[in-house]
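Annual report, structural modelling task.

Input specification for the adenosine-5'-triphosphate complex:
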Amino acid sequence: MVGGHRVKIVARLRPPIPGELSDNGIRIITTDDGLPSICVNNPRDHSQVFKFPFSSCYGHDSRQEDIFEADVRPLIDVVYSGATATIFAYGVTSSGKTHTMQGSRAQPGVIPRAVEALFDHRRQMREYDVTLSASYMEIYRDEVYDLFVDRETAPKLPVRENDAGQVFVANLSLLPIEDISEFNKLYTSANKQRSVGSTLLNRESSRSHAILTLEVKLTQQDKVLTGRINLVDLAGSENNKLTGNDASRLQESAAINKSLSVLGQVVHALNQGASRIPYRNSKLTRILQDALGGSSVGVLICNLAPGLKFRQDTLNTLNFAVRTRNVENKPVVNEQDTRSAPKLHFSAVRQAPPKLAPLAMAPPTTRRPRASIAPRNAASGVTSAAGPSRVPRVSAAFHMAEAAPYPSIGKRRESGLGIIRERFNVAKKITDQDIDDKISKAVEAEVERRLKEKLEEMERQRTADEERTRQEAEIADTTRDQTFEIPQPSLPSGLLTPLLKRHQDLDNELRQRLQELEKKYERDKLDGDIVHKLSPKSRKKTGRAYVALARAHSEKGDLQVALDLYRKAESYVPDNMKLKERIIEIDLAVSHGTEFNPSPKRARTRRRPRRTTQARAAQSSLNIIPETSVPGDESHEEEAVMNLLGGESKDDPPKQGGRVTNITFGVELTNSPSKRGMGTEAYRNGEVRRTSPRKRARM
Ligand SMILES: Nc1ncnc2c1ncn2[C@@H]1O[C@H](COP(=O)(O)OP(=O)(O)OP(=O)(O)O)[C@@H](O)[C@H]1O
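The model returned the following structure:
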């Protein structure tokens, strides 16, 4: 064990991009104790400034190398010591995550610099035999794809867990890399496969989470140290009003927002010391399990976008960062004795799981076709089953070297499975078919074992519940028997009535208890999935119910309970920005012990009548962008949200008669000259957006 390690937070503010309006609403200052802080004006009350101190904060003029040298290079030593490090870039769409991680040819980001540093370091490790390998996956709409496999044929990869509880992506390629130029070729080609799309906020917006893993294997006699660095470029959270997403983008966006919302729930559960951490609620969190409360050294780079339109997202990101910095990991050194079976890691299949090693000795059995092998046969004319409908990157933002066509990479393009085959062939001189059989059998056995375990666990639970119920029934029976043993004729009339009534009550109680147990059993079974099993309407309804409950608690001053309930609501309506806003406010009020003043519940507003074509034409001739004209607009959603939260609006005047309120984000509250009134006119891409009549009426 290397020792407890908190996730390190690095904040980076990008410069305004051409055509984008900027203001001084987000700044970096250095506090008296020398810590840099991100300062953000409250978007709802410009007289408030929120401060978020982090160990590293980078302004719009920061250089790629500044971040790398200060916050990433130290991790290279960690990797060479045999531990795992994970760096993930988090932030709203277009905040600069891909720029920070990949960069461009002129400004290479964390990834190319890390690769260079890993190769540089290798030269110093003369006493070891060092090999470097890479795997690269993307999580697109909650499915995992191998970016080193042609995207037309890439199958969805399953996420599994080995006996040691390590999560891994089965059949993910782990390719050896000899030098930087070889990596560049692979990486450039793979990036072209990544799902990207154009939105109003980003011409090349990542529609998936991408995880590149670089693995270093240090061999010295019988010992093998395995260090890894996971470099994660998360897809950005999206406000569909700003992105102008169409229907297909909306689905992608929902998947992105959902997985990021689960990420937030995982961090929250870890902070609360919860017994159940909802890692399994999304593939992203399952795969990042090791980096969040696991055995990896973690660095979170929070990318922030300037400008008023991103202000709420910035606060969401910073709030997530504040919560994440409390997550503690327990890094371990991955050392193996080569005489024993190697361990498995989520990113690697080249290492056979412990169970696989002895299988090489077993006699060959009948071959079973494996779905994951199908794409490998694509070259020989065999097409795979329906592939993912992903959007290819039209032009990779990152071109470190001229892309080489895959065939030139030759053997190194072999999948992890292929590498296992190759190794076994050398060692035991057995056929591909034998190895496929053994691997299939091992995987099947593992799946069967897990299923059995799960069923046994459920059975144990049911038996325990039944036993309890039986005992309760016995008590009830005893009571009844005793009741009937009493010689009735000798009793005065009316004496039995209370006893019989009690018996009746017990029966009812027992029946009720049984029903509760059944419900609980069903609930437990559904727990992880329940949100996804509900229809959108039911999700909204449930979310609304939680919000009502949360609101009642917050009005009573029971903020912690209210916060938990709001978070519960968020798992049902993860896209609800208003709800996120409320969570941040209460979270900060709870963590700083300050007062929270819930706004009064507003009466439901009547829905505006649909605009006619003529009205729309008249509006467009005035060149005004009405709020409801944004493609993919969800004004009805917005209204539901307002109902959900009592009908507040971003344009609401500050509470408490315009005085500075005590809602403190971050650590400290300062006053700045009031800029109130700015919120009455919204700006988008330089065009003035007229405030809607509905909002004007409210102001
Ligand atoms: N620090 C920076 N300096 C200069 N340009 C930047 C910087 N950060 C981001 N940009 C530019 O901003 C735009 C958006 O950045 P990028 O694509 O990296 O955002 P993103 O967070 O990855 O977005 P998405 O989540 O939509 O993929 C790009 O044109 C990028 O070149």
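Residues 351 and 536 are 42 Å apart (CA to CA).
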